[in-house]
Amino acid sequence: MGVDLTAKRILVTGGGGFLGAHLVERLRSQGCLQVSTPRRKDADLTRAADVEGLFETLRPEVVIHAAAVVGGIGANRDNPGRFFYENAIMGIHVIEACRRFRVEKTVVLGTICAYPKFTPVPFREEALWDGYPEETNAPYGVAKKALLVQCQAYRAQYGMNAVFLLPVNLYGPRDNFNLESSHVIPALIRKCVEAKDRGDAEIVLWGDGSPTREFLYVADAAEAVVAAAGCYDSADPVNIGSGQEISIRRLAGRIAAVTGFDGRIAWDATKPNGQPRRCLDVTRAEREFGFRARTSLDEGLKATVEWYKKSVSPQP
Q1: Annotated catalytic sites, by residue?
Q2: pTM of the prediction?
Q3: Whether the Cβ atoms of residue 170 and residue 216 lie closer than 8 Å to each other
């Protein structure tokens, strides 16, 4: 039996973040009027007492745990301890509070970074434990994967309705465009736009361009999460993606074309490539709660570039 979200008190952790903000918009557009989105100044999820107070005050009936400390290859490489600890402890506190406060439905967002480095393509959920994640993002990926174990253990022991989703790399309007911490699409967009504005002859990108990635437009991701919150109830994790794979080299070319940058794209092979390939098997999401990505990569890139040009004044 599904959950009527419109009648529930819903807590979205990380509701001020990239995916979180789109989730809140999606929920409200579907008639959910009791959506709470506390910020870190209101409740630090790394502190058990803060989480306790938050749940005491809000008494949520549905929780979507979207809060995370994230970044690209450079940010993961520079902050492995922080990324492990904060992502693990936030999730542990939130899931435990959901158990103790008898939350009706708990949705926990994991990450594609949890998959083993050499997972056969397309990534099937059953392969999640077949090896260790790619080294540069392993602490983040392992921390998130531990939350899957917690969800499954709590379901087995306490009958808790906790589900775990594995989103692929997200992008779209309101993404993080800070070059120190951004993911590949916003970083490429910013580099190309700034290079075009300055009249630069080339941009330099990390790695050799050979790795492949899959991307999902953030509004589509929000649709998937809300659908799972309403009608998915199983211990099995679910991939959330588009099922479409593209090399970083080809992606860079597409972004250059969309932004109008016609200079040279150079590759710095002394920098890490990250995981060799990423592409998800997305059949479970479609089968279990009817999700299929709507937005093509070209459409999504165009919308993201337009938003960036209109809305962002790049910061150094």
Answers
A1: 140
A2: 0.93
A3: yes
